[in-house]
Amino acid sequence: MSEQKKCSDCKHSKCRCKHEKCRVSGHKKCKCKVEKKIKVKVNVPTEMSGPIVCNSTCGNLLLTDQVPSLEIWKARIAMDATVTISVFNSAMSTASVRVLVIRNDGSPVEFSVPSGNTLSATVDAAESIIVFGIDTGRTEGKYFLEVCFPVICDDKRKHKKDK
Fold it and tell me: Which residues make beta-bridge pairs with 85?
């Protein structure tokens, strides 16, 4: 029977560590106190490996019986956009604001902002954002919107531009 060497890092005879010193010793179980790294593989299509562009905008909201809803953003790009929307509903408002973010996978994100409050959400694959006044009355507020999307860096896009 061959004698197993003790791991020089952990001094344990049954080390299975992937650290170089442990692996060389042929041990089966790690007792090292060395930081272990976790590798995560993320598949990024080559056409999406370009830079990310973010655009920000803000505006005022005034929802009344005459204007009960307002589409404040609509995607006009071919790539999936990630949006961060923050909505402030003034304390002077008589109704809450409902925010609806429509996503291209069919699962909308929705939240309500009571008077005198601000709420935010970050949503991927967004197609449009619509705000509604809940119930009747006057709703005043502000919104901030950041839209981020990858830039396409492929030959097809370059050829279309040249023509």
Answer: 121, 145
What is the rounded CA–CA span in Å between residue 7 and residue 61?
66
pLDDT in tens, the chain (163 residues): 445 555 555 555 555 555 555 555 555 555 454 444 444 444 445 444 578 899 999 999 999 999 999 999 999 888 889 999 999 999 999 999 999 999 998 899 999 999 999 999 999 999 999 999 998 889 999 999 999 988 876 654 554 455 5
Question: What are 118's strand-pairing partners?
Answer: 88
Amino acid at 5: K
Retrieve residue 22's tokens.
């442990």
| Strand, helix or coil for residue 115 | coil
CB neighbour burial string for 79-104, b if at least 16 within 10 angstroms, e if fewer: ebbbbbbbbbbbeebebbbbbebbbe
First-to-last C-alpha distance (Å) of the chain: 76
